[in-house]
Amino acid sequence: MAILYQHEIEEQLRFIGKKANCPFISWSGEMDDVDPVYFFALGQACSFRERFYWSDRANGTVYVGLGCTYSIETEEKEQRFRIVETKWKKWMEQLAFDHHGTAATPILFGGFSFDPFKPRTEKWRAFPHAKMVVPTVLLSLKNGKATLTVTVPSMRYEESMEKIGLLLRLLSQEQKQPTASLPTLVKYEEAQKDEWIHAVEKTIRNIREGKFDKVVLAREARLSFADVIDPVVVLQQLREQQPFSYLFAFEQDGQCFIGASPEQLVKKEGDACYSICLAGSIRRGKTLQEDKQLGQWLMRDEKNLREHQFVVQMIKEAMGSVCKRVQIPASPQLLKLQHIQHLYTPVIGEKCHAASVLSIVEQMHPTPALGGTPREKAIKEIRETEPLDRGWYAAPIGWMDAEGNGEFAVAIRSGLFQGKEAFIFAGCGVVGDSDPMSEYEETKVKLTPMLSALGVERNE
Ligand SMILES: C=C(O[C@@H]1C=C(C(=O)O)C=C[C@H]1O)C(=O)O
Ligand SMILES: [Mg+2]
């Protein structure tokens, strides 16, 4: 199969540029199969300051982006989804591309903050309320095919081409799995544990007084390591340990937001649209029998079923508002992941008339799985009560293509990595009959996937 050469791509780009006279040009071509995490790792060797990773639950679509040719950022609070959508459409008009017989087109990849009205703290300074980017180099793996897409400004692409040339040379050599090892933990700290438990108690009282029905409260753990944490190692571990999750990474200037989330927010594919309701949790059992018993308990537990039902109700309505027909099973199933089991209800929307996946994201975020019910009151409670700046945690992360199709996951089971420091996050749905200590335990289980990816075991 095709080995790609720098001079050929350059020639093609020049040809596209001459023909179309557009500010941006893009070329796609088939390439040899490559391990996407290895590709991500090469990004650093080639001095790309931004790296992006996305793989869906079925591993059906994998995108790895290196470098940033165009970035849409906004600190606007109310209109952020629309602003991104409008700018993306405008930008597409300035782009000439030749996809060379492949199905690939440039995509926009990125994410959003959970709550633009919550004051931002220092650690999230590099993550605006919305940031979506067009990577300079994009690897797409779909239906067993690997495609490379190069997108550059037509007037100055020499600097990018140098990096791309190096990347192509490294790709043509034998693939060596990156050998970076797991970092050594020097400090583990659960931020404001007592304050968090008090917040849960207060929220339970407020729910019992009828102020709202459900509020999701989250907390963070801070970890310090002896060495700088390499996102490549974390991705490798997550890929092995969480095979049924979305895998994502958004890295810029050495700051990396990474996670393995089981929760789809929405996928739009033409006029079909998909979502899932995920809420209600219990740990995995230590034996097969215990695991089965815990699962059966979860399927019948009224508190968890109620937590779940709020999500079903809202997603059903949101999908109903953009689709002609919504298919949704009457009762939840069990979703068993490596460390946790959840109540799970898949949702399918037919004849979707939304303009783009982003306009559905706008309708859906935050669902009661991450925010609460009623939505506005719950968000206000989180803003005022939760001792945490969520940043991009629990918010939409994903991609969109030229036609407005795309997929977003909810960025849970995630962490922010800055040099030798990591912040990892977990939350839980608080309802009237929640017990604060059980909720605390539940968040502990939800921290496990990231801890385990970092090689940290905590048995207390
Ligand atoms: C908020 C998180 O998870 C969410 C809360 C759940 C619950 O409370 O049962 C279950 C799945 C997620 O929708 C998290 O993992 O941080
Ligand atoms: Mg729960």
TrEMBL record:
Sequence positions that bind Mg(2+) = 307, 442
Q: Which GO terms describe its molecular function?
A: isochorismate synthase activity; magnesium ion binding
Q: Which UniProt keywords apply?
A: Isomerase, Magnesium, Menaquinone biosynthesis, Metal-binding
Query: What are the residue boundaries of the Chorismate-utilising enzyme C-terminal domain, all occurrences included?
Result: 193-446
Coiled coil location: none
Q: What is its EC number?
A: 5.4.4.2
Q: Which Gene3D superfamilies match?
A: Anthranilate synthase
> According to its UniProt record, which reaction does this protein catalyse?
chorismate = isochorismate
Please give the superkingdom of this protein's source: Bacteria
Q: Name one GO biological process term.
A: salicylic acid biosynthetic process
In the UniProt entry, which residues are flagged as the active site? 214, 263
SUPFAM superfamilies linked: ADC synthase
Question: Family per UniProt?
Answer: Belongs to the isochorismate synthase family.
Sum up the protein's function in the record's words.
Catalyzes the conversion of chorismate to isochorismate.
Identify this protein by name: Isochorismate synthase MenF
Q: Which gene encodes it?
A: menF
